[in-house]
Specification:
With about 120 residues, the protein is of the alpha+beta class. The chain is built from 5 helices and 9 strands, in the order βββααβαβαβββαβ. It has helices at about 15-25, 25-30, 40-50, 60-65, 105-110, and strands at about 1-5, 10, 15, 30-35, 55, 75-80, 85-90, 95-100, 115-119. The strands form 2 sheets. The chain has a 7-stranded antiparallel beta sheet with strand order 5-4-6-7-8-1-9. The longest helix has 10 residues, at about 40-50. It is globular, with a radius of gyration of 13 Å. The chain starts with a strand and ends with a strand.
Length: about 120
């Protein structure tokens, strides 16, 4: 897997997990997600509960984190039929790292976040 990192704050706009899921487009739709969060509150407990077993589908994850949920120190791992496909890691609400098995996913994200740098 290769990856990129970019600031979670783009000017005055905060890039949320929901936004990244949408930016994945069709590459993310068929994935099953497992989410781990350092911060503990009702939503993070629900995310981790739904991550048990084979995880949750993309639309379920999106419904839980939209429209503007900001997570702190969280990681969402997306699994496809061939195994781990995407890892979205949020550090301290200030930095995103995205790793993907398919370089095209990273290319799409680079277009939206041009200040992204290679990991």
């Amino acid at each position: 897997m290769t990856g990129i990192s970019f600031p979670a704050w783009q000017g005055r706009h905060y890039v949320t997990l929901a936004e990244l899921l949408v930016r994945l487009g069709s590459s993310g739709l068929g994935l099953r997600w497992r989410v781990e969060c350092e911060e503990r509150w009702d939503l993070t407990a629900e995310l981790e509960r739904r991550s048990a077993g084979d995880g949750m589908d993309t639309l379920t994850l999106l419904s839980l984190v939209a429209p503007g949920v900001q997570l702190v120190d969280a990681e969402a791992r997306g699994f496809g039929p061939d195994g781990l496909a995407v890892v979205l890691t949020e550090f301290d609400s200030s930095l995103w790292e995205v790793r993907a098995a398919d370089e095209r996913v990273l290319g799409e994200l680079r277009m939206h976040y041009p200040e992204a740098s290679a990991l």
